[in-house]
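Table S5 (text form). Sequence records supplied for joint modeling of the two-component complex.
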Amino acid sequence: MSSDFYKTSILPFAGIIIKLCRAYTNSQEDFEDYYQEVCLQIWRSKDNFREESQWSTWVYRVSLNVCLTLLKKKKNNVQHFVSDSLTVEETESNFAFSDESLNLLYDAIRKLSEIDRAIIMLYLEEKSQKEIAEIIGTNPNNIGVRVKRIKIRLKKILDGKIN
Amino acid sequence: MEKSIESIWKEGFLKSDALVAPKINNLYSQKSIHIIDKFKRMFKINLIAIVAFSFVFLIVSFFVGIPITGVMFFATLSVLVFINKKLLNGLDKIDKGVSSYQYLKTFNEWIKKQIAINKKISTFLYPIIFISMVLGFWFKDAEGMPLGERLVNEILIGFPDIYLIYGIPLIGIVIALLILVLLAFFGGRIYKWDLNIVYGRVFKKLEELMTDIESLRS
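The corresponding structure-token record, covering 381 residues in total, follows.
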């Protein structure tokens, strides 16, 4: 991957990539692995970009797919070693932002399903329903309702924790 | 008043230093180590399989009456395993602490050396295996007489004028020599074909990774 490509085509979207990777990982090591794998896959798949959507949409979609794939792989690996009674994925992270409210929000987001996590993150990044639907690969009409439900769920989880 | 999740999100990232991207330099380090470790594991398993096979074959060969084949197989494959084990020890000396590119480059050099040595060995290995098979069956006991001699006697009944050298039909010697030459000639290619079946995917990944890193460095 040339450093030019990284600077011009990935770095402008590093913010959302970082936020997405944080939502699917619980440790700094995993986060760095996910981030690096996302960058690598964006670079590798750049020739498949057909300009039917915006480059940013493409970047988000690849990032999300990579995060979901890595998460699935991790779950499969863990399932080989843990008994059924243990939870496969921990929601409490061992890294912390300097803002405590943000930490609590992230812990709450990690309690959501994998797709709901992506939807709420994209919503919080002020992506339009159409763009969220395009990235997730679903009908734009469902996004609004789903965001409302996710927000209610998050509020329930966060109830009383944040003032 | 309770904060909305939108404001927690916005304010949190305004205050936070969380949006620092990890260094991209380490992108390939884990992948390099993973690929090389995978190769090492496969290589070790391969060597163990050769040892196990030659040992089992040695025992079986005594039971089926071709001990010469078994002993020659065992001796040849033991030498092969010994040489490759020595080569593998060299691979363990590669420092994992160096950069991914340097690590892969050193590994690539090791692979080239390993392939070159094994290609040379294959020039002798396949002919030796063929000779061991021929000798094993030639001296196999067939009702009180070596199978080879019995075969020559049968041929002499059908072709009494056939030319013999030390009691072996010339045509048989010519065919055996031809096979030996062909095996010696194509030994290297057979080895590379065999190598690709076992390690082809690992080599392909290694090549892709090297290209990626070279592109990153350019």
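Note: The longest helix of chain B spans residues 170-217.
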